[in-house]
Write a structure and sequence with these properties.
The chain is α+β, with helices and mostly antiparallel strands and 620 residues long. The protein has 23 helices and 25 strands. The strands form five sheets. It has a ten-stranded mixed beta sheet with strand order 1-2-9-8-7-10-5-4-11-12. Strands 13-14-17-15-16 form a five-stranded mixed beta sheet, with helices on both faces. The chain has a five-stranded mixed beta sheet with strand order 18-20-19-22-21. The radius of gyration is 33 Å and the shape is elongated. The chain binds adenosine-5'-diphosphate.
Length: 620
């Protein structure tokens, strides 16, 4: 792809996707164009972190003794800005491969869509997409990057691009390690060539960069490791600023936890619970785990070993001196100190959530709405803390108002004296569940039923088996241990007649159902469908069907209400003629009506035409 122009200058074309992206960046109106500076500073800071880490074990690099810093120079007359770092630098290959590729699929589509919708493009987004470097083309027409890698035998290179279709690379003499990026500002952005403006942006976005930033001769950022300060000396604004800085989130966090542990293991941590998670398509890119520091020195980003998977929404930093630093990542990951930190940290975060659940219900519910799905998987993965996590679960329920949630503990406290089980029903949403005839018995007897509306619940709740020694049971199950109302029993069909009626039901429905039985749970409805012994939870089955379109589902048991007038009438009809068309049609209709209520009736046509026939008969 390279074509030689002059002797040492090579020319490269951007890939098609990159061209489109650049075109959008250059030709769109952005809110917050100043974030280009944050992006360049953040890249410089990454490069400085890399060299610092490398030098822990290897000092055979270019300029081993140079200060680690970022220097910004501006010239208001010439309208120019340059930013230079003493970081790890880039090799020629890196210049080609690292700069100029779109790392995340979906980026381009999203930006295009925003443009189509005529929304102003928020430059803040660019950095989150991992094309931060290119945000510089919001404020300039041409950029020069001069860089030399830290490897002792490295050479210097100059990279130039106008951000349209191509870039050039040539070899240059560069004595010092690191990278310098320089450009002339567009007229409408010439304010970035003023000291005060640059300082203002740094204060706003890059205050926590862990290396000194100089604008001219003045050092402008406060290099503070916030987590090393005593709790009472940290201001709320500082926390919010710090959180935004490390998380890329534009909103303040929902809460934070500052931990300082000394003893068998030593560490400090400053962790945050975000207000909301990142949008789904950016999840992988944005959802970073904790950052690991050793005595204020950055060791690694996205350190997954510091927290269990179900707490992966937590953001922040952990700083410990207990880890051997000059060893590989693998050894760090499997060190006993790491496991201890993880245990302590997990316990503290659970304690923090417990405190919210107890004392700040609104916050807790907000948290639960956004992160509950991830969090509850802890029930199946963290055996040590299972009980604590179970106590933090929340559900909708027939005894709490719509929109509110209850804990299992509160459910148990409301249980009736002779109630031995915890009941639940799963489905897509509350309204659907409230229509379910299986609830009738429970409503009538004032027994509370948890309404599981989150699809994840069907993986969690059945695996609980019991809570506080009380078994959890789905009220969709056929073998539920409930007593039939005596008064209704008296009014019901006689046993003989009932048995014959059930036989005719079975003949009529054939292999549509697993069985037909007399119901103990129905009050107002003539019939309902329940899950047989081998069957699985309705919600679970729906998910299976979604995942596998060939999966037909297990057969259900039809329960009929022997006290219902319709069922009683049918009982009387079989005495006359078991093949009566109205009788048979009514049975099919009862079955399909029950399916309809569950949202599982596949062909409404037959249902409606049968209903029409029945109405014709009834209106004769
Ligand atoms: P991101 O920082 O999200 O990876 P960027 O487009 O900002 O995306 O940068 C792309 C890559 O270019 C970086 O990951 C890094 O490898 C390289 N890079 C950018 N700026 C520098 C710099 N100042 N020093 C060394 N490498 C850099």
């Amino acid at each position: 792809m390279a074509t030689k122009t002059k002797k040492q200058t090579e020319e490269f074309e951007y890939r098609a996707e990159m061209k489109q992206l650049l075109h959008l960046i250059v030709h769109s109106l952005y809110t917050h164009p100043e974030v280009f500076l944050r992006e360049l500073i953040s890249n410089a800071s990454d490069a400085l972190n890399k060299i610092r880490f490398r030098m822990l074990t290897d000092t055979n690099v270019v300029n081993p003794d140079v200060d680690l810093k970022i220097s910004i120079e501006v010239d208001p007359k010439k309208q120019t800005l340059s930013i230079e770092d003493t970081g790890i630098g880039m090799t020629k290959d890196e210049l080609i491969s690292e700069i100029g590729t779109v790392a995340h699929s979906g980026t381009l589509e999203l930006l295009q869509k925003m443009k189509q919708d005529n929304k102003p493009l928020d430059a803040n987004l660019i950095g989150q997409f991992g094309v931060g470097f290119y945000s510089v083309f919001m404020v300039t027409d041409e950029v020069t990057v001069e860089t030399r890698h830290a490897d002792p035998d490295s050479k210097g290179y100059r990279w130039v691009s106008s951000g349209e279709n191509k870039f050039t690379i040539e070899e240059i003499d560069k004595k010092n390690r690191g990278t310098k990026i320089s450009f002339k500002l567009k007229d409408e952005h010439k304010d970035f060539a003023e000291d005060y403006r640059v300082k203002e942006v740094i204060k706003r976005y890059s205050n926590f960069v862990d290396f000194p930033i100089f604008v001219g001769k003045e050092e402008v950022n406060r290099v503070t490791a916030l987590w090393h300060k005593p709790k009472d000396q940290i201001k709320d604004e500082e926390l919010t600023e710090f959180y935004k800085f490390i998380s890329n989130d534009l909103k303040p966090p929902l809460g934070h936890l500052h931990i300082s542990i000394e003893g068998a293991v030593n560490f400090k941590a400053l962790v945050f619970i975000p207000e909301t998670g990142p949008p789904v398509f950016l999840k992988e890119h944005l959802e970073k785990s904790l950052q690991l520091y050793s005595n204020k020195i950055f060791i690694q980003d996205d350190c997954k070993e510091l927290l269990p998977e179900y707490l992966r929404f937590v953001e922040g930093v952990v700083d410990t001196e207990d880890l051997p630093l000059n060893v590989s990542r693998e050894v760090t990951q499997s060190s006993p100190a790491m496991a201890k930190i993880r245990n302590v940290l997990t316990g503290k975060i659970l304690g923090f959530l417990e405190d919210w659940a107890e004392n700040e219900k609104n916050k807790y519910e907000k948290f639960y709405k956004n992160f509950g799905q991830i969090f509850k998987t802890g029930v199946n993965s963290d055996f040590t803390n299972k009980d604590r996590i179970v106590n933090l679960l929340r559900f909708e329920s027939t005894k709490v108002d719509k929109g509110e949630l209850t804990s299992l503990k509160d459910y148990v406290s409301r249980m009736k004296e002779d109630q031995k089980e915890i009941y639940y029903l799963s489905g897509e949403h509350r309204e659907e569940l409230e229509r379910n005839p299986n609830l009738e018995y429970f409503r009538k007897n004032e027994l509370e039923v948890l309404l599981l509306t989150d699809p994840f619940d069907v993986f969690i709740v059945p695996s609980l088996d019991e809570y506080d020694k009380k078994p959890l049971n789905s009220i969709d199950k056929a073998d539920l241990d409930i007593k039939r109302d005596e008064k209704e029993e008296k009014e019901a069909l006689s046993e003989n007649l009932a048995n014959s009626l059930i036989e005719v039901f079975k003949q009529t429905l054939g292999d549509k159902v697993e069985d037909v039985i007399a119901s103990k749970r129905l009050v107002d409805s003539p019939a309902t469908l329940v899950v047989g012994k081998q069957g699985m939870d309705k919600q679970m089955e729906k998910m299976m069907k979604m995942m596998n379109t060939d999966y037909a589902g297990s057969k259900k048991i039809l329960e009929i209400n022997l006290s219902h007038p319709l069922i009683k009438n049918l009982g009387n009809k079989i005495l006359a003629d078991t093949n009566d068309a109205i009788l048979r049609n009514s049975m099919l209709q009862i079955y399909e009506g029950a399916l309809l209520l569950e949202g599982a009736l596949e062909s409404p046509n037959e249902f409606v035409s049968r209903m029409t026939d029945l109405m014709v008969e009834a209106t004769k």
